Amino acid sequence: IASRMNGTAAAVGGSAPSCRFAHYFVVCGVDTETGLEPDDGAGENFEQIPIRRSFRSRVLVHYPENRDRNPFNKDAVNMLCMPRGLSFCTQADRLDPHFHSFTITSDDGTRSYGFVHTFYEEVTSPQIITAMQTLYQMHHVEHHCSSSSSPSSSSSSASSPSSSSMDSLVSSLEESDAESLARVPGCLGCVGSFDAARDTLYVSKALCLITPLPFLQASRQFLAQLHQAVTSQTAPPLPLESYIYNILYEVPLPPPGRSLRFHGVHGPIVCQRPGSGELPLGDYPLGEAFTLLGVDSMVKLLTCALLETQVLLYSKDYQRLMTVAEGITTLLFPFQWQHVYLPIISTPLHHLLDAPVPFLMGIQHRDGAQRSSLHLPHEANLCFVDIDNHCVEAPEDLPPFPDQTELIQELSEVLLNFGLPPQGGVTTNPTTTTTSSSPRLSSLVLEDLMEDRQNGNLGGEELAVLERLQALAKRCGGKKGSEGGKTLEHVFEEEEEELKSAKLNIQLREVFADRFTAIFGSYEDFIVHSAPDLDSWLSNRDGSCSFDKGSFLSIQPAAHLQFLSRFLETSMFSSFVDGKIISRWVDREPLQQLFDSRLEQERLYDMSDEDSRSRPYRKCTTLSESAQMVERRLSKTDHTALHPHLLDMRIGQGRHHPGYFPKLQADVLLQAHNSTPPPHTHTQVLYVMHDLYNLSFYQQRHAFSRRTIRQSKLLDPSPRVISQTHREFVDGLLSECRLKTKRMLMERMGKECVELGQGEASITGLQENTLIHGLCDLLERTWGHGLQLKQGKSALWSHLLHYQAAQEKMEAPVDVAGVRRSKWLKHIVSDCMLFFLRFIQTMRDDLSEVAQARAWIHLALEKKMLTQHLKELLRNQELLRQLYKPHAFLLCEEEREQFLFHLLSLNTVDYLCFTRTFTSISIPYRVVIIPMKKLSIAMATVNPWVCVSGELGDSGVRQIPKNSQEIFFQVSEPTHCGFSVSFQCKNLGRLSTLQLGVHENSGLLAKCLIDCVMVYNEITGHTYKFPCGRWLGKGVGDGSLERVLIGQLVSPGAEEDSGRCTGTPPELTSPSQSVRAVLGSLGRTNSVEVQEDLREAANNLVKYFHKPEQERGNLTVLLCGEGGLVLALEKFLLHGFKSNRLFQRNVFVWDFVEKAMVSMETSDQMGDLHGSTLTKSPPWDLLCHYMNAITTSPRNIGKEGKFQLFVCLGIRDRLLSQWFPLLAECPLTSRTYEDGALLRDRAAVRSLCRILQTLNEFCITLEAALVKGVDL
């Protein structure tokens, strides 16, 4: 490789093509041969006066003709150099030159930068002048005719001349027509009028320099000096070709960590390049971006960019668009923007606003245009940045950046140190360029002295002499000398400003880089390396997990989780992780290598053992050091490029014509000649070529990860390419839907966690919310693609409203008889959609259109009807064609069906996204009590009540009316007769427990055997089953008048195979009657099984508390549900009973516990326990205290309920492990239990105590329904 590079360097005679400072020099302007052509895409009104219209510009010349690795895109460069086409004016207008820049990305991902100096040049072509004069006369005729005719005739008469006049006037205008039009009086004296005999016509011309790196200041100075030489009355020292040739072929890129000086027309220009350990080159003035928008808005904008929202910049000034766009992308280090990046789009490219992908684009704010006039198809996830009005409109629910308050404070301090206000709103005019903006000195002597000063070759005395010389120059005619140039004092001031801007740039960037270092300092520990080689990793990339997101989030501060959980799902983070994984087989990408080296350095100096979740905010400590490196390079240049020199030009070429840019001699500029390279060039060429080679290799390896459309295609406004572009957008949406639904299924079913051996299938609520938010964003972008008629900011909600209006117009009673089943089902779906649309519209008053659309998606997803409702929405083809353009995704039938099919797969899992997101709304519930079939008549004698509890609260006591009997149908089970009550209350969340009781004054006959209780959420359609299987009433069973039941979510939409489990594992429920029936035989049950059940119940509790809080689920189920701790301890105490005759027919553990306490109290009074440790001890006192409190509770919860309360209170207060030894040593135990009973086995009791002691380290909070009525 080295030999090949040496050959390349030697062939160019100065620097290799890839290592030159500039790639192309371009001149754009009016082509006198084609004449005035309308700029079809300018979108301007023919009602405007001709001089205010836009005309098509052309690339007049560009040098060199082409480069192998960076081919010249003529149309794209022309569009970006003159986004608004040609601009005309007269001597009455301001003729200030303007500067702007742009970026263009080649097909291989390499980015180049264009710097454009636009000025006005007098039109000398008689054809162009005649054409403009003709347009004015035609414009006057049209307005004269329209004022004297009817509106209908005026519109028709005005359209024809305008369209014909906008053809190529120079080539098509006949002399007779021109003579006849010349006789029409012009609009002399009108504002903006033009008369060839009176006015001088000027047209815009653009000089452009395209470079591989963003050398903004140096390129701007070079172009300004070039323009100054054109406007100067005196000819430059050399022909302009010499300077252009010099910068194209003889000025190399500065070596990394060094500065370079080269020469413009009137003075030296210095540029610098960061070293390998510094942040990449960023020459765009971040200080200007911060002063325009303010620190708060810039941080908000950066957050939007990091979360890959659609970012649209809006300003009258093209350079402001580039300054903000480049500033934001520079601050992303070490991450890189992966999507559409077009900081400047002209009117022909406004169709890209339809793009259903994340983008960062900028459009010009035209004079008189309003914000509302912009057609923005989807604004749900759009960040709109009005730069001129210092405003950032971020999407709703944007999470704050980690440590945002402290970060804003630190950034504000940096700005204040440089004398800039942090609040923003400062209006600057950075793009107007005057002749004094180029560093021209008044004499060659002073220029040489300045070069010595730049190189640090002047001491204090010499500097003093230099200042005296300058003062003398002022006194001896300084005014005249500074007319076209500037004084030395001004040069010093400009140098200080440039240095100040560079130091501010690097310090602001260092603050953000330090933040990312702090946040992602341990990211390497969570990379999952699952492939043995590169090829296998590439082939399985989509189906593999590359980063352990759950574990990474578990060590982050809680305040950072909302942002980080969404950021981990972005393409830029995914690409960053992919780069880390692929670095095992190829060289690391430069940005990642730099970031990793910073992390290593940070670890060397950071010896603290603080938990990352509680680590305080630390300010950046490298601000001074980084600024000093920049100052060192700018204060003393390291290398000097070859000076411009006279070229081998023909006699007569290169003549100076003041005010006109000359026609350049092409033969000397199209190719490089052999010349002696600077001394440093050889080493520098090798270094940079090696850099570029690695970068090219990396980009080829990463071609699979770049899903963005090539920029060359995006910049092509031809109809054929536009159609292809939107076709690629359609394919991209379909692919994204497939990946998102697959990711949601994998996360929801816990596939990744199981494969990694990290435990049970589960998902945190935070990750679930993040994935659903991504789905909402995808649907909004899909519905926004090609949308041409929209209400509000949400494209999806706009479509739903149009659908609602159309359905309500044709809403009519449907005759069920004679209607086929398929048609009837369509009416059901339609009515269901309308019902839920109206519910969303009325559930809260403060919801925006975007929030309403998200609520609708959440509700449809939870009801498992998202695909069904979207299919119904798309069934109205007439409405679709009315709302959407032909290229819209929703009009691509095949892709649309595949899209819905991918969404249908989400029905295989259960979501509670609506229930858990909209927690403050009111929800209607219906409760149905179902008795055992044979005893359903007994329900007529009871007076039951219920209280439903969920994770968000309880419903309060709700009385069941006696006359509320109804028939209840349950799939795969016999029909039951039940009693129901409906009520509305605040959203209870996921239901957990239900208190069921009868009033104490109901009488002895008020008893019934309850099978279960069903609770319906009338909005989400969720059904909860609370199994009971026990008696309720006095004198039967355990005499309970109140029971606490544990609920189970029944899968909605289950059919005959409803017993089959879905992807979400079922929860435990209340112990059923069948389980209770088995308890009587536990005296003969294997003790190993009982102990195994006990260990399993305790282990479930331990795992519960070791999970993240959002993942834990319901603690009550683990305590009181089937397989819970209460049932396991009940089995333990029932094991080894001698006989149940002591407790009559039914065996209840509570009877033994109660008898044991009475027995011990009696024995203590009789002195039988003299000397025993059972009495007069704190555990014994507490046991008696708790037993008395439970026994005297006003709630009649029965013996089973009392034992359940006994266990729950004991485990909550860490007393259970002390109480069981007391029960084991009780004298009653030996009389009640057989010798082999677990309670009489000391080893088994000690093992039980150890198990219970492991639970003492956890803080257990009981539901209010469990401890109601007991104040302990």
TrEMBL record:
Which residue windows does the record flag with biased composition (Low complexity)?
Answer: 146-170
Domain RUN positions: 766-921, 1116-1267
Matching entries from SUPFAM superfamilies are given as:
Lipase/lipooxygenase domain (PLAT/LH2 domain) (SSF49723), RUN domain-like (SSF140741)
Cellular localization per UniProt: Membrane
Q: Which GO terms describe its molecular function?
A: guanyl-nucleotide exchange factor activity; small GTPase binding
Residue ranges constituting the PLAT domain according to the UniProt record:
923-1046
The similarity comment for this entry is: Belongs to the RAB6IP1 family.
- Name assigned to this protein: DENN/MADD domain containing 5B
Q: Which organism is it from?
A: Nothobranchius furzeri
